[in-house]
Write a structure and sequence with these properties.
Length: 380
C-alpha cells in the first residue's frame, strides 16, 4: 500500500458540531454569515450573536486505513433527505458527524488488497458498503452484508471508501461531465427508489402509488415507469415536484395525505387500491397511508428511514399485504442503473434543482429544510 501524496493529505468534510444541533430549528431563519478562517475551520457557518449554529467544513486527514480501502477524488456529492434529521435536531448526536454518503469520482489510491478498481478510474459506490461476497450479498441484499458499514464523509473533496472491491463500480471510460449528476443519483437516491419499486413487486401493467415527493419518491416514479407500470399515482402537494413526477412518468397526482389520500386513491382505482405502493417518507402517517392504499394481496416497498413508526400486529394480520423494505441494496442495481444513465436512457440528475460548491453547503441544507429545493448537488 503506497503512502498518501501531499495533494490529498487532508480533505474537507462536512460536520455537525454537537453544540449546534439543539438550536438549528430555532435559528434557521436567521441570516447566516459564511466566513473562511485560517487553519482548521473553512467555510464555517455562524449565526450572528449566537455562536456556531450550523454545518461547517473542517479539515481532516484522510488516509487509506485498511488494505480493502480506496481513496477517491469526489466529482460530486449531495445532501440527502436523511441528512436533514440531524440537521433539524430530530436525531440524537453525541459527537460531530462526518456528513455525506452519496458520491462518485475518480480513484486516486487503493489498498493492497483491492483488485477490481484502480487509480484513474471513474467510480460510483453505494451508501451501504459491502464485500459483495457474503451469503447475503450473493442473495442480492448487500445492504445486509456480514461486513456492512455505512458510508460517511462524502461531502468532501476526497473520500475514503472501505470495502472498495465490493462497493465501487467503475465506468468503462471517463463519463461526460453532464452525466455526473445522474451517476451521482445512482449511488443512493435512484438506487433506493428503484429498490422501493422492486420490493413492491412492480411489474409491467399494474397500478403503482408513490408516497413521498422528495428525491427518493420521484426516483420511485422513474423506476416504476422503467419497470412497465401502466398507471403511476404520485402523491404530492408541490407544483415543481408534481411537474417532475409527471415528466418521470406519473399519470395521476394526488395532493391529499393520510386518510384523505387513501380515500382519493381508492376513488381512482374504483375502490380496489394500488397493486404496488412505494413508501418513501418514513413517518408513522406515511407508513399507514401506504399500507392502506394497497389492495389486499398487494405489496408495499418501504424505504423511508423510519421515525416514530408503530405497526399493530392485528392491523397487519388482517391487512393481508406484503411488506419489504429497509436500506436499499443499491450495489445489486448499480451496473444496470449506470448503464441506463451512460446510454442516456434515463436522466435522474434532473432531481437536483440546486447546485452549490462545497463552501455553500449550509445554504443547501437550509434550502432543503425549507423545501425550496428538492435535492442539493455539491460540485467539487
Amino acid at each position: 500500500m503506497t503512502s498518501l501524496s501531499a495533494g490529498y493529505q487532508h480533505t474537507q468534510k462536512l460536520t455537525f458540531p454537537k453544540s449546534a444541533l439543539s438550536h438549528l430549528r430555532a435559528n434557521r431563519s436567521a441570516r447566516a454569515n459564511v466566513a473562511s478562517s485560517p487553519g482548521l475551520d473553512i467555510g464555517q457557518v455562524r449565526f450572528p450573536g449566537d455562536g456556531l449554529r450550523g454545518a461547517s467544513v473542517r479539515v481532516f486527514a484522510q488516509p487509506v486505513l485498511k488494505p480493502t480501502d480506496a481513496i477517491i477524488k469526489v466529482a460530486a456529492s449531495c445532501i440527502c433527505g436523511s441528512d436533514l434529521w440531524p440537521f433539524r435536531g430530530l436525531q440524537p448526536v453525541d459527537a460531530p458527524m462526518h456528513m455525506g454518503h452519496e458520491y462518485c469520482g475518480v480513484v486516486v489510491e487503493v489498498g493492497s488488497a483491492v483488485k477490481t478498481v484502480r487509480p484513474g478510474q471513474f467510480v460510483v459506490g453505494s451508501f451501504c458498503l459491502s464485500d459483495d461476497t457474503c451469503p447475503h450479498c450473493r442473495f442480492g441484499f448487500q445492504s445486509s452484508c456480514e461486513q456492512r458499514e455505512f458510508m460517511s464523509g462524502a461531502q468532501a473533496p476526497y473520500a475514503r471508501v472501505p470495502l472498495a472491491d465490493g462497493t465501487l463500480v467503475a465506468t468503462g471510460t471517463m463519463p461526460d461531465d453532464d452525466l455526473i449528476p445522474s451517476l451521482l443519483a445512482v449511488s443512493d437516491v435512484l438506487g433506493t427508489g428503484w429498490y422501493a419499486a422492486d420490493a413492491a413487486r412492480e411489474q409491467p401493467g399494474p397500478t403503482v402509488a408513490v408516497g413521498g415527493d422528495g428525491a427518493v419518491g420521484l426516483m420511485g416514479v422513474l423506476a416504476a415507469k422503467q419497470m412497465g407500470a401502466e398507471r403511476i399515482i404520485a402523491m404530492s402537494r408541490h407544483k415543481a415536484r408534481q411537474d417532475l413526477a409527471l415528466e418521470y412518468g406519473a399519470t395521476d397526482i394526488v395532493s391529499e395525505r393520510g386518510e384523505a389520500g387513501v380515500t382519493r386513491i381508492k376513488e381512482l382505482t374504483k375502490g380496489v387500491g394500488a397493486d404496488s405502493v412505494l413508501e418513501c417518507v418514513g413517518t408513522n402517517e406515511s407508513m399507514h397511508q401506504a399500507i392502506n392504499c394497497a389492495r389486499p394481496g398487494g405489496s408495499v416497498g418501504f424505504v423511508g428511514v423510519p421515525h416514530g413508526v408503530e405497526l399493530d400486529g392485528e392491523f397487519l394480520f388482517f391487512a393481508q399485504k406484503s411488506l419489504l423494505g429497509g436500506p436499499a441494496p443499491v450495489r445489486r442495481f448499480l451496473p444496470h442503473l449506470m448503464e441506463l444513465v451512460l446510454s442516456r436512457k434515463i436522466n435522474p440528475g434532473k432531481v437536483f434543482d440546486l447546485t452549490l460548491p462545497l463552501e455553500g453547503v449550509a445554504e443547501g441544507y437550509r434550502a432543503m429544510d425549507e423545501r425550496r429545493a428538492i435535492k442539493t448537488l455539491l460540485r467539487l
